[in-house]
Amino acid sequence: MDLIATTLATLVLLSAFWLLIARRVGATVNGYAAQSIVLGGLAIALFAGSGQTDLLALGLLAILIKGLLIPAVIERQARPVYGLRELQYQVGFPTALLLGAGLTLIAFVAAGRLPFHPGLLSEPVLGMAIAVTLLGLFTTMARRDAVVQLTGLLAAENGLILVGLVISSGLGLLIELSLFLDVLIGVAVMSFLITRIHETVASTDTSELRRLRG
Amino acid sequence: MTGAALMLCVVLLPAAGAAASLVVPERAMAVTALLEVAVLGVALALLALAVQGPAIDAFDHWLHLDGLSGVVLLVVAIVSVLAAVYSAAYMRHELHEGIVRGSEVRRYFAVLHLFVFTMVAVTVAGNLGLLWTAISATTLASAPLVHFYGSREPLEAAWKYLVLTVAGSLIALLGFLILYQAGVGPLGPTYNFSVAVVAGAAAHLSPLLAGAAFLLVLVGFGTKAGLAPMHAWLPDAHSQAPSPVCAMLSGAELNCALLGIFRVYALAAPAAGGAMLRTGLVVFGVASMLVGIVFLISQRDFKRLLAYSSIEQMGLISLGVGLGTPVALLGALLLVVAHGLTKSLLFFATGNLLLRFRTTAIGEVHGVIRTMPWTAILLIGGALAIAGAPPFGVFIADLSIVSGAFAGHLWALGALTGVLMVTAFVPLVLPFHSMTFSPGARTGGEVGALALAPAFALLGAVLVLGVWVPGPLEQLLHSAMTVLPR
Amino acid sequence: MLAAALGQCVAVAVVLLMSPLLKGTIDTLKARVQSRRGPSPLQPYFDLAKLFRKQRSAPPDASWVFRLAPHVAFAAPIAFAILIPVLSAFPLSWAFMADMVGSGFVIGIGGFFTNLAAMDGASPYGGLGASRSRLVSSLAEPTLILIFFAVGFISGGTVPFVVDNVLHTASPLITPSHALIAAAFLMVVLAEAGRIPIDNPATTQELSMIEGSRLFEFSGPDQALMEWGGWMKLFVLLVVWLNVLIWPQGLATQLTVGAFAIAIGTLAAKMLGAAVLIVGIESALAKIRILRVPEYLGGTFVLSFLSVVLFSLGR
After folding, report:
1. In this complex, do B299 and A214 lie within 8 Å of one another by their Cβ atoms?
2. Minimum-distance CB partner of A149 among B133, B156, B163
3. Rounded CA gap, B466 and B468, in Å?
4. pLDDT at residue C170, as a whole number
5. Are C241 and C273 in contact (CB under 8 A)?
6. DSSP for B100-114, written as a single string
7. Three-state secondary structure along C115-130?
8. pLDDT for B288
9. Is B463 exposed, middle or buried (0-12, 13-18, 19+ CB in 10 A)?
């Protein structure tokens, strides 16, 4: 059981690295979809082990909303830029990887130092979860493409769902539902703006948007 | 029981406003602003109830109102009402000029009411998960308003605003999850994650986890409150939105983010020990004041000027709470009210300038005193008030914070704060002076009585705050002080 | 003692004789996947036989380095084979001559001499290939070091046989950190041995070559030694991957003829599996641009880093 969970969490972590370095918009969105589906699978595996039905609901919601619906929405909005030219890195590739590795290390140290009461999952999963969160946020800061920035935020949110699975499985379904609603509205607003960015600068590269200074 | 009903009512009224703006005819859109008046009425009734007794807690701790959130609710309600009224005048002018279309005005009002809904929800949220959701929802509801004019700069501002504050919210969510974990020790693995329950066990939380939770929330919601160095989005968003929205962003929404920080501060401090948490608030506070003032100097855009002033004031509030002496706490809470009202006043006044001159460049606005004498009074009064001149509310609050620092024997910190506030005076007042009194072409006139009335109401209010704090407000501030750790 | 030396000789012989078969099998399978008939799996043996009968020629300005290089490139993988568990799970006579870092040096010296000789030939393609192969190897270095660390962490030793014994008895066999290290090592093996996606061994375009352009100036027996050395390199690296990192089962546990025969059979089966895997990878992927090589190897670095972190901090 623990082995399955750790393996799935490792896959989630690897996909976070993938988002950090992916070269094309389509690859990024697909990476996020895969990450969400693995995350949902992890929640369902935990349900199978513990019998908590809200875990089952969470897993199914993650697969349906984050794995299928949200990627479809983004894909619809970002269709014109899908798989076109390669994305530029704001932070160089080796630097991004090294910083990402450093963030992972920090996450693991934090998870090891803080006195957590592990619930269903073990401490390494917590380290991975925090690492996914940090990597997602780092992706948002390190990349300039609007779609990739959005995906980075969503990946960070996936990491937080994983943190929630590890340390606060009793938080309650209602809160998780409102979180999902929040994410959905956020995706709607941001993908609307992505469409507008695309109309304005004919790409989704936000470094084109830099008139506001001082 | 009345408290519970009133709380439900105060949340649902703005939502009803949003629904109403979808059905009301476009010409009569301003009517929905009246619903916000009802919000203010209910909020005042609620606050009257709250200052009398203990915190109101209802629906299995889902909703909660104490002095601290009461202060924020008061500001949110007042600013929202006046912003809605001012929006009616502002949008009527924009419609008349042909800059916006009727359907856009309908959408504007619908989202405006939703924005108020999310902010009111922040103030009455009792469940901490709900609190986080509401605070991050304020971003989502206000981003379309920032993007309202739809051109390139508002788009850039809205995108930056969304990306940075959502990232901040996610960091804060990590903090909330860790706070939950901090309570697992005393409360068991499954408990009601609400203000009342966690506060009941606050002394027994895991100290390390509570401290970590606070730091994450401070950084996360600090981003949303515009604390330096996470403030990069604020001058853009607060300068590109329509003026009534700017008033709500600066005057009301920033306080909602601060409420999130202070809430977790109050919950974490008993276990984690006040000293470390206070240092965090003071460091971010001083950094924000410094950054705000540096960018105030030689600022050429009057809306950005006001935005940087907001950063500075947020820093001052956070510093005041971090000092923790009673006088400083009272000053910080008074500053929440005074800054909210004064900053809204200034955004309303500069909104009139914007409608008339169609620019935000300080250098292109001349001779306001001759063409728009009433607005000129508002500009000069507001500038003096926000810069901390007596006899306005901000002055009293500033003075309290500085003397609070001295009362806590933090001589250097107090002196630094005093010097910074004096430094900010000239760069804040001078641009408004030059716009008002410089010689220039005599064009246009006042926008209309409806565009002046909200600002004059606010000017009266901040003037009153400077000479006399009304009894019920004093009660409310004192009840808020009891929530915050000293 | 004598028996152990004999066993060592058998291991070396297996490496010598089976490596052309591995190359031939991969080529045949790949041709089948591409719906061609392809050469027989035995074709590399015929190639070697032909090359050894041909005349040797060298560029007029080439020095002794050029003449020495094929022998070093041929000897290095053989020396490496002594250090790793090819057939036996227990260490044979000379197994403790070097640990993993040391065996890395041994395999590296072959590449070093190949590069020198390629530049010594003064052909522009030789220099190009040498500089490119340096790029790949130097970028693979951090990953390899991390893999040694990770393996050292997991098993408490860096001598391949010790590692092997620990992993042999470890349970559960596959943990995330173990899987990550295996994936990272396979990616590095593919890069080092000049396979897709780093280099296309079947290409005829000089400008895109890495490995091939280094061998342009060699002919006759020299070329045979060079090519054979390259095949052995792939073979021994895959042996490390299979027998040390993935699945040590099937190795001989005592020094008897029967056990060694079984070990040879299992190794052949494992190699067939590896050949299928490589054919799958090479059919699914295209060679990446040379400028992307750092990204590929950066990926291996992340994998091995995560493995170390997961292992050392994750429990």
Report:
1. yes
2. B163
3. 6
4. 55
5. no
6. S-HHHHHHHHHHHHH
7. HHHHHHCCCHHHHHHH
8. 96
9. middle
Higher-confidence residue of B87 and A52: namely: B87
Residue in B159, B193, B235 nearest the CB of A206: B159
For B341-378, write each residue's pLDDT tens digit. Answer: 999 999 999 999 999 989 999 999 988 998 899 999 99
A150 contacts in B (CB within 8 Å)? Answer: 163
What is the Cα–Cα distance from B304 to B248, expressed in whole angstroms? 15
Using the beta-carbon criterion (under 8 Å), do B304 and A200 form an inter-chain contact? no
**Cα three-residue angle C15-C21-C25, rounded to 5 degrees:** 135
Residue B461 tokens read as 């209010």
A211, part of any domain: no
Interface of C with A (CB under 8 A): 172, 175-176, 179-180, 294-295, 298-299, 301-303, 305-306, 309-310, 313-315
CA distance B277 to B280: 5
Domain residues for C18? 2-313
pLDDT in tens, B100-137: 988 899 999 999 999 999 999 999 999 999 999 999 99
Q: Distance between CA A183 and CA B125 in Å, rounded?
A: 19
Domain count, chain A: 1
Percent of chain C whose predicted confidence (pLDDT) is above 70: 96
User: What residues contact residue A96 under an 8 Å CB cut-off, 6+ apart?
Assistant: A20, A21, A89, A138, A142
pLDDT tier for residue A168 given thresholds of 50, 70 and 90: low
Instruction: Evaluate whether B220 touches B174 at the Cβ level (below 8 Å).
Output: yes
Contact exists between B and C (3 or more beta carbon pairs < 8 Å): no
Q: Kindly tell me the burial class for residue B50, based on how many C-beta atoms sit within 10 Å of its own C-beta (0-12, 13-18, 19 or more).
A: buried
Lookup result for tokens 């909330």: B176
**Residue burial B364-375, b: 16+ Cβ < 10 Å; e: rest:** ebbbbbebbebb
Domain of A187, in residue numbers: 2-206
Q: Are A152 and A137 in contact (CB under 8 A)?
A: yes
Copy the structure tokens of residue B303: 């809306």
In a domain, A170, yes or no: yes
Token representation of residue B110: 């619908």
- A51 SS3 class: coil
Q: Are B292 and B228 in contact (CB under 8 A)?
A: yes
Rg of chain A over CA atoms, in angstroms? Answer: 17
- Peptide bond just before C172 cis, omega within 30 deg: yes
Q: Which of A10, A21, A112 sits opposite C176 (nearest CB)?
A: A10
Average pLDDT of span B329-352:
96
Instruction: Quote the minimal CA–CA distance from C293 to chain A in Å.
Output: 12
Distance CA A153, CA A15 (A): 14
Record: contact A116-B174, CB cut-off 8 A: no
Q: How far apart are CA C68 and CA C117, in angstroms?
A: 8
Contacts of C277 (CB under 8 A, 6+ apart): none
Domain count, chain C: 1
Contact C69, C114 (CB under 8 A): yes
Contact A175 B133 (CB under 8 A): yes
d(CA B115, CA B137): 8
Residue A213 within a domain: no
User: Residue A212 is nearest to which of B129, B153, B208, comparing CB atoms?
Assistant: B153
**Of C176, C298, C315, which has the smallest distance from its Cβ to A7's Cβ?**
C176
ipTM of the complex: 0.95
Catalogue the E-assigned strands of B53-117. Answer: 56-58, 63-65
Q: A145 - beta bridge partners? A: A205
- Chain B's closest residue to A148, CA to CA, is B163
- String of DSSP letters for C20-69: HHHHHHHHHHHHHHTT-----TTHHHHHHHHHHHSPP---TT--HHHHHH
**Chain B CB contacts of A212 below 8 Å:** 153, 156-157, 160, 235-236, 239-240
Query: Is the residue at A83 inside a domain?
Result: yes
pLDDT for position A151: 94
